[in-house]
Design brief:
Rossmann fold; two-stranded parallel sheet; globular
Length: 281
């Protein structure tokens, strides 16, 4: 039987869908998931299995995983890609909105790990891939909860990798920069009329589209997917992968003193954008 991969967040036009297509082209059985089957309509292949999976729901995760294990010998590769993007200042973001970001981007991965990795450990094989972000390594203004969710994801993934060496399960952290996707359409934006940051509204709104702009070297989704799939499907996958727009500059910023890097990032984000770039999709 071909190897089996489970991928979360495979909605049309996104990174997950591109990853699914690459795995299908390599002969895998792909369990592509999203919160609705309608969102998976672009995936059409004999080896694709479409499932409804909401990573914020313990019951949904458990049901989807049980179905996969009931139909196969086990999951060989898990790709945790489902994500929730939010733009807004920390002071203006309601607690409930911030919690939703953390529930999706961080605890969603934790739920998947709890249900799948012990079974991988019992088989003595498997690869877990977490899709993080360069913003989990160095924070930027106006995306505080997204930054925090990815930073938590990175730390959890690195700890998981060390612990999983004992059970022969490989863990890979992917830290993308700007990748063309449907993220703009799914982003949430918070800036109330009485905000103390109202004077910076143009700069804050620009963040919604920034990652999709040519100015920031946005990477083609399919190119990103091909590289990631090639690396994580190898017998010895790397522990860490970073690629996409802005990653080279990010690498340089991370080597600077923290105060210097933060000052530069704040100065960059204070600039008023010339125009609102178009999204990738």
């Amino acid at each position: 039987m071909p190897d089996v991969v489970l991928i979360t967040g495979c909605s049309n036009g996104g990174i997950g869908a591109a990853l699914a297509r690459c795995f299908l082209n390599k002969g895998y059985i792909v369990y592509a998931t999203a919160r609705s089957l309608k969102a998976l309509s672009d995936l059409d292949h004999p080896n694709v299995r479409k499932l409804v999976l909401d990573v914020t729901s313990q019951e949904s995760v458990a049901a989807a995983v049980e179905q996969v294990y009931g139909e196969t010998e086990g999951i060989d590769i898990l790709i945790s890609n489902a994500g929730f993007s939010h733009v807004g200042t920390l002071l203006d973001t309601p607690y409930e909105e911030g919690a939703k970001v953390m529930e999706t981007n961080f605890f969603g991965f934790v739920r998947l790990v709890k249900h799948i990795v012990p079974r991988m450990g019992k088989r003595g094989k498997g690869t877990v891939v977490a899709i993080g972000s360069i913003l989990g390594e160095l924070a930027t203004p106006f995306q505080g909860f997204y930054n925090a969710s990815k930073a938590a994801l990175h730390s959890y993934t690195e700890t998981l990798r060390m612990e999983c060496t004992h059970i022969n399960v490989k863990v890979v952290l992917v830290s993308p920069g700007s990748i063309k996707s449907n993220i703009c359409a799914n982003s949430h934006y918070t800036l109330p009329d009485d905000s103390l940051f109202k004077a910076l509204e143009k700069q804050i709104r620009f963040i919604l589209f920034q990652s999709q702009s040519e100015e920031f070297g946005v990477m083609d989704t399919d190119s990103f997917a091909k590289t990631v799939v090639s690396k994580v499907s190898s017998t010895s996958p790397p522990q860490y992968i970073t690629l996409g727009g802005f990653t080279r500059i990010w690498g340089w910023l991370k080597w600077l003193p923290r105060t210097t890097a933060e000052a530069l990032l704040w100065k960059i984000h204070l600039k008023e954008p010339k125009s609102e770039p178009k999204s990738g999709h």
